[in-house]
Amino acid sequence: MTIAAPGPTSSATVTDKGAGPLLRAWRERRRISQLELALRAESSARHISFVETGRSRPSEKLLLRLAEHLDVPVRERNTLLMAAGYAPRFAETPLDDPALDALRDGMQRLIQGYEPYPALVVDAGYTVVAANRGIAMLLEGVSAELMTPAPNAMRLTLHPLGLAPRIRNLREWRGHLLAQMEREIALYRSGRLRALYEEVSAYPVPGEGGGEEPAEPVPYFALPMRIEHGGRLLSFVSSISTFNTPMDVTVAELAIETFLPADPATAAYLHALAG
């Protein structure tokens, strides 16, 4: 697959009560006291209290510093700024914009260089914006309706017409993915992500195809996805990478997921296919 532009991710709406209520919500979500936040941001608990109650309007610099210490996502930092009456600081450049040519080329080279192992790039809503031939191999036999117009990694994995029937430890892997989405919903407060979660969590769980797990499972260093392909049982552990200190909303919401063979047999099989 080649890189495609992701759709917009829904965000919290700007209120007419200033940035205070939004800031308080983020602080409470992070379970940080006003005093602790003040110490981190080199302010005072009194001033933080005044900001949260609307008695004081924070400077743009202070608001960004508070957002950084609360680990507020880049998209929501713009929301905070606009609620306080400031212009958004972070652009949201379409992924197909020429300004991101170097980024797109770099990601494509990165996932191609990972072959024959699977790797893909997704946006904040799990839309697949790029994938290598290792992913294409795993998706062989997946229903065409899941591949268009924009494939979604969660649907491809958990839908009964997707990979789900071939994943031998589906209940474990499904639980891992749903827990991951729950954490991201709490972080990003995304309506788009919440709708996706409700959809995929409602999919029926098919029988875990291809037989039972062995009586004495092979020990792994991380939870693997155990999936059938071509009559073989392959095992992968996944790793997710994001960009450090992104200055653009689009870039901040991209994630590169790579699948590492969890045993020598899987690695040998993939290299044999590539050869």
UniProtKB/TrEMBL annotation:
CDD domains: HTH_XRE (cd00093)
Highest taxon listed in the record's lineage: Bacteria
One Pfam family this sequence matches: MLTR_LBD
SUPFAM superfamilies according to UniProt: lambda repressor-like DNA-binding domains (SSF47413)
InterPro entries reported for this sequence: Cro/C1-type_HTH (IPR001387), Lambda_DNA-bd_dom_sf (IPR010982), MLTR_LBD (IPR041413)
Domain HTH cro/C1-type: 23-77
PANTHER family cross-referenced by the UniProt entry: BLL4672 PROTEIN-RELATED, BLL5781 PROTEIN
Record GO terms (molecular function): DNA binding
Organism encoding this protein: Streptomyces pluripotens
PROSITE patterns xrefs: HTH_CROC1
Protein name: XRE family transcriptional regulator
Gene3D superfamilies to which the protein is assigned, alphabetical: 3.30.450.180, lambda repressor-like DNA-binding domains (1.10.260.40)
Xref: SMART domains: HTH_XRE (SM00530)
